[in-house]
Amino acid sequence: MAIIITAFERSPDGGRGLARDTRVRWALEEVEQPYEVRTVSLRAMKEPAHRALHPFGQIPTYEEGDLTLFETGGIVFHIAERHAGLLPDDANARARAVTWMFAALNTVEPPILELANARLLERDKAWYEKRLPLVSDRVRDRLGQLSVRLGDADWLDGAFSAGDLMMVSVLLRLKPSGMLDEYPNLTAYLSRGEARPAYKRAFEAQLAAYTASQRPAD
Ligand SMILES: N[C@@H](CCC(=O)N[C@@H](CS)C(=O)NCC(=O)O)C(=O)O
Fold it and tell me: Does the predicted model carry a pTM greater than 0.85?
């Protein structure tokens, strides 16, 4: 059954792999499942045809036969459940890996997004300079806690899992800020994620799509 995901027609991240289709591509590459990509414009994302796939008018979505999914947590979990390679066989280890997926999305990603949004959308506000350190400290709190838990380990709980895939994906947004440099073990963790052949393939695929979107039409 062909797998089709959606991605931005022109990713606003400039091909840096921060759009969330990259984490879905990465999961599919880890489990060696081929997939097709349908790109959608910002306008088309808000139209009924796309909203039928994604109620919030966002990307990515995932279609496989008569199954349609949205939300990267749900999509990556589905991929990890269906195919070997992203979740351990042991039931307890599996539950812990899923817990790390939730931790990435529910506990670590929100302050990171708050910081990204503040930098992007609030620079011209009178309170920006006062608010930024507060928001940054909330990110540092989480990074400090994560850094302590990771310690010297390569991955969050034994072998690489969907929990690491999601956590690395979430942390990547901080890379340009230099904030991760304060936590050398997290920087190394990120590098290990980026060094995985499956991540490299996913990154290259989204970059190729972005580059193609920049070429003038014939
Ligand atoms: N929680 C959702 C977030 C999806 C999301 O924010 N997608 C972004 C792209 S990475 C998007 O479609 N942004 C455009 C918009 O919201 O209009 C998930 O993990 O899938």
Answer: yes
